[in-house]
Fold each of these.
Amino acid sequence: MVPQREQIMAMYRVQFHTGMSVTQLMALYGTQEQCEAALEKCRWPAGFVCPMCTCKEHYVVWDGKAKTFQCQLCRHQTTLTSGTIFHSSKWPLTKWFQAVYFLTQAKNNVSDLEPMRLVGVCYRTAWRLKHKILDVMSERESERRLEGLSLFDAGHVDTAVYDWGWSYKFHWGRHVAGALFALHCWSLKNGQAQHQY
């Protein structure tokens, strides 16, 4: 029996969002200079603004390779990375951008070994990169609240171990003995899904 057109669930477009490829990442943020330019544009889209007095007039002072912005009015000095997750880091921005990319592109949890292998850093560095990025993401999401109509659905993932590995079967609704609990939430506004958790 072929389902009627009305009975077929509409495709959720966010699922099929193409995102950014690794090639595009390297083309846009492959060098330290490209990363610095992107960060400067992101921090100050309309040009530098002093964080102390909001004056726009400034000097650029070079301390070795570090670009420092000095306000003409209050003489406060600010680096490009001050007040960000990248502040006082020995790692180049290219490594940070790559780590952010790989952590945000994954649909599931990323082990600490993944950034080590993909970004090319030692385990300790990979662990720090991952946890700093996750802390910032968590801090940003903590302020987000659901609004409009919110839909929740729960299910259970029934797991079984076989000689060849694990098997998963998803069940919506009632509890299945020995299964893991899963919760899915959509926040709808004007009939469109705004957030998914």
Amino acid sequence: KFLIILLHHVDTSNHLILTFSIRYVHSLILTPPYPTEVPLTSDEPFIVERKLQGLSLRGIDATVWDDTRKKRLTTEHGDMLFTHLGLSGPAALRCSHYISTARRKNLQVSLSVTLDLAPTCA
């Protein structure tokens, strides 16, 4: 059996809070780390030319599509920001998990993101 101790470090107002838990398991399976909740990058001309850099969008729906399988992976609602490299903000960061997962399974997968700027006006 393995003994695993998980330590959580939280710094609030210059105080360090340590918590731990002890768990016994029969086997240990390690999953390689992969990026989740990261900004989305793009080589689209309007991103590369920084035409929308700094534009902030509120209350939009961002949908991630698997163009290879013609399937919607997720739709996330929230705020988004166009950056010098692509998209950031809560909606984009949540979408990035699905993109990272799809890319881990198949590096050749074709993915796209569509934005609904007024999702409540349907």
Amino acid sequence: MKPSVIALFLLICCAFTGTDRPLTIEQILANPEQYNGKTVHVTGYFTQELEKRAIYQSKNDAKISNYKASLWLADYTNLIQFLTKWGNTADEPFLANKYVVVTGKLNYKPDTINGKVYGHGPENLWPAELVEISHIQEAK
């Protein structure tokens, strides 16, 4: 093989290494500016409740409504398409209360209120949100 072909192959492999691995909410919120406007794969604990459609860092974070360790899922239409797949209704999503991987574009426009950064979802409680959701599946 020619050296230029090998170099191109290695460049392509390196470009895709790690990009498909899901990020944690903690990783994203540690430096949201780095991911703002980019499509990301995020793992978290999914809740589907009235005004609490989000993924949380952990099941416990969801239980205590720890918004600062979560991302609001803003793209309801696309999300419901995935949740209603296989005949499930929006009232009985088959992925609710499970760990999932969500693919969507991160939207981070901070608003500081009393020293806390919020600005997304109902009452602007979430520090960031996922829009243009293109995929959601149970985490393995």
